[in-house]
Amino acid sequence: MTDQHLSAEVAPPISTGWRRISPVVYAGLGVLLVSAVLGIFVAGELGAFLMATWEVVLFATMCVLAYVGLEAKAARVLSRVMLCLLLLLGVGFNVSSTYLAIASDPPGVLPAGTSALLALLGYLSLFAGGVALLAALPAMRRLATGLTGTQEWTSVRALALGAVSAFTTLCLVPLVVLGEPPLLMMLQGVPDGSTVFDDGRGAAGMFRDQIYSLNWTLVAATLAVGYGVRRNWPETLERLGLRRLSARHIGLGILLTGLLLGLGYFTDEVITRTWQYFNWRTTDLTALEALFGPLISPVGAVVTGVTAGLGEEVAVRGILQPRLGILLSNLFFTSLHAYQYSWDGLASVFVIGLALGFIRKKTSTSVSALVHGGYDFVLVMMEVG
User: What is the pTM of this model?
Assistant: First the structure.
């Protein structure tokens, strides 16, 4: 069965089915897959660089299959199988991170009722993964149409809607069940998060890991929007919103960074006062400092600004927002922070994400990445010293 209704967003096809896919796509997926496998066996810095592909290889493969699936039913089915696999991995991550959070204080000791709690979290995570099925319902698509303005739903867009809805829900499950983000629970009473998460690589190793992750994210992003399957290179860059920054754009980015910092300060003040008034639980700042402590340095500010600014903007505002709109993509962006922030922190992330979404809509991903990176750079530098 072939999708006949392509949205205006999708460029005229440069391939049809499996055989006429650009060799670059096969090469790109091949590099990702081979790198992921080799990363298991190669030690040292090269091994760390190769292992970073695991963050994106399955996602990139699913997206390529989804675009081929516009005309090839087998690819469309395989893309949905890949989504199920990714969701199962998400369920596993929820259970494992919660187990480590509960068992971390004191190390290796599990409190009573742990099995029941993990079972509950596992069931809720599976249910959250099942949210992906709602994308097939006409009612869900009508609701999404109201949020995105999209009238025509291709199999690619429906897969994106299902994946984003499911992962947004999935990421929030541990916070809902535990009442605290699992990563911060692991760090309660730990003075330095690098002793828990960096596998002995230190701050410099964490910086390199961020750069490695950005490298593979950018490779996967081009495949995720149909490069070599539905778009050529200029169309791919335009779809991602990556445009050359002029002096005017840089000046605008600096101005918007200042405005975003002001918005962030005002938002944090309102949220803090609201949470204090209702006596709601707030993010554990001591554990949060332990988590980000190794990154607090001038070098860390630069690396965080570049990797988080460019990587997150390309992934969320570049790939997802043109397809699913500002609200849905920003809900997904916010939920990704639920492993490290409580609800007060997520409220702040949501507001900042909305602002970045509007910047992306009115300008480009390049400008929103500049603003996001500048925002993170200033926040880290404010903690230095």
Answer: 0.91
